[in-house]
Amino acid sequence: MLLQIPPGHGIIYAIVLYGMGALLLALFIRAIASWVRIDERYAFIRVLARITDPFILPIRRVVPPMGVLDVAFILAFFLLITLQILLTQALPLGW
Distances in Å between the alpha carbon of 25 and those of 64, 73, 83, 94? Predict the structure, then answer.
């Protein structure tokens, strides 16, 4: 199901909503790929790494991986969701 833009909201709202949604999807796919051991030999995974590394690497510096579970993906996911909510709520109607 596509995300619905509420009436009265403009193009900036849609860009924030869909742009952050695409970023969250890229982060989710990369997390799944890392769990099933798909490495960066594939161009698609390299593209996802280039997109998501600016969000994951700073978190990895603070919170190192714990065994098999990489907490950086989970923290980045929740931080990006929070940022998406805050940005969409901060935009006035018509933007």
Answer: 23, 12, 15, 26
Is the pLDDT confidence value at 79 over 90?
yes
Nearest CA to 76 out of 42, 34, 15 is that of 34
Closest by CA to 80, choosing from 32, 22, 35, is 22
Q: Residue range 7-13: average pLDDT? A: 78
Residue 36 is classified by DSSP as: T
Q: Exposed e or buried b for every residue in 50-71, given b needs 16+ CB within 10 A?
A: eebeebbeebbeeeeeeeeebe
* In the predicted structure, residue 1 carries a pLDDT above the cut 60: no
User: Are 84 and 68 a contacting pair, CB within 8 Å?
Assistant: no
